[in-house]
Design goal:
The chain is about 30% helix and about 20% strand. It is α+β, with helices and mostly antiparallel strands. It has 3 domains: about 80 residues, PGBD-like superfamily/PGBD (Muramoyl-pentapeptide Carboxypeptidase, domain 1), CATH 1.10.101; about 150 residues, L,D-transpeptidase catalytic domain-like (Beta Barrel); about 60 residues, no CATH class. An 8-stranded mixed barrel has the order 1-2-3-12-10-9-4-13. It has a 4-stranded antiparallel sheet with strand order 5-8-6-7. A two-stranded antiparallel sheet has the order 14-15. A hairpin with a 5-residue loop joins β6 and β7. The longest helix is centred in the first third of the chain and has 20 residues. The model has no long low-confidence stretch (mean pLDDT about 95).
């Protein structure tokens, strides 16, 4: 699969080199947002720009109004650049339009180098998470079986790039809150309102693993460097791991999991987590993943609704690849570019 993607990018590279040889594409001048049916003077330039990159197939000289045909071309452009598809030519869309073709050529080459590294150990069955695309894919026997949107780590707490093996899936998981999150983020909320623990279904344990009555703790005496307690969030609708957790042990402590914060998937740029990978459609992804182990969607639903924590061991560990590809070509030959959220393109592969 990675070899195929490499070949596709190689073809895209040739096309962008041809565009560069012909003088590149015109820059669309800055200005207010170009809205549908606008007769903005930049419409002709916009049409010319989209024609060069193949997003517009009509004669660009015919456009003086931002009509439905040109809007469709903008929607196509927005779709393949990971932008909100609203047909509005605002700040983000304008910035993407004005990336020089030479920069796109460099971007394609960088991603070809990344694919070379991945191809060294390419399995037939795997889960691939493409961080800047905010997507995860399940592939078996070279065939794409499932695809889902994801949320990745914010800029200051980036999702690391690594390979591991998925070994099990947990239904209705508990969450053992990491020390840093408990002491830095949750402690101030507890100090302000002890009811935070009850509403969030948190249990408190001492260093020996014994349960502690929250009312017996002098919370005001605790701080970031003195927090001798463990917080565990019980399964339920407010659990930060949601209803399903996908585990592939690694030195970073990163996993894939459901989330109660579904509203965040409405954003086109989804770097919000502490580093773990939140899954938009965990049930569908789990059903496709566990089908080989005899778990139907109905059986998973039944286990979910029981409310009980249940661990499902995979009969065969499944390779997980967390990678960073800012340029890919889909099965239809369309080139997609994604925002370089971690500035990795700036410094090379």
């Amino acid at each position: 699969m990675h070899d195929l993607q490499y070949e596709r990018l190689q073809g895209a590279l040739g096309e962008y080199q041809r565009i560069a040889g012909d003088g590149g594409w015109p820059a669309v001048p800055a200005g207010p947002t170009i809205e549908p049916d606008s007769d903005d003077l930049r419409v002709a330039t916009l049409a010319g720009r989209l024609a060069v990159s193949g997003d517009l197939v009509d004669d660009p000289s015919a456009f003086v109004t931002y009509d439905e045909v040109l809007q469709a071309a903008v929607l196509r452009f927005q779709s393949r650049h990971g932008l909100e598809q609203d047909a509005l030519v605002g700040r983000k869309t304008l910035a993407a339009l004005n990336v020089p073709v030479e920069q796109r050529i460099r971007q394609v080459r960088l991603n070809m180098e990344r694919l070379k590294a991945l191809a060294d150990a390419e399995p037939r069955d795997f889960v691939l998470v493409n961080v800047p695309a905010f997507e995860a894919y399940l592939v078996r026997d070279g065939e794409l079986l499932a695809r889902t949107g994801v949320i990745v780590g914010e800029t200051e707490q980036q999702t690391p790039l690594f390979q591991a093996s998925m070994q099990y899936v947990v239904i209705n998981p508990t969450w053992n809150v990491p020390y840093s999150i408990a002491s830095e983020e949750l402690l101030p909320k507890i100090q302000k309102d002890l009811g935070f623990l009850r509403r969030g279904s948190y249990s408190v344990f001492d260093p020996d693993g014994n349960p502690v009555d929250p009312a017996s703790v002098d919370w005001q005496s605790l701080h970031q460097n003195r927090f001798p307690l463990t917080l565990v969030q019980q399964p339920g609708p407010v659990n930060e791991l949601g209803r399903i957790k996908f585990k592939f042990p690694n030195k970073y402590g990163v996993c894939m999991h459901d989330t109660p914060g579904k509203h965040l998937f409405a954003y086109d740029t989804r770097a919000f987590s502490h580093g773990c990978i939140r899954v938009e459609q965990p049930l569908g992804f789990a059903a496709a993943l566990l089908d080989a182990d005899g778990w139907t969607r109905e059986r998973l639903d039944e286990q979910l609704h029981s409310g009980e924590t249940h661990t499902i061991l995979l009969s065969e560990p499944l390779p997980v690849i967390v990678t960073y590809l800012t340029a890919v070509v889909d099965d239809g030959g369309t080139v997609h570019f994604y925002r370089d959220i971690y500035d990795r393109d700036r410094y090379g592969p």
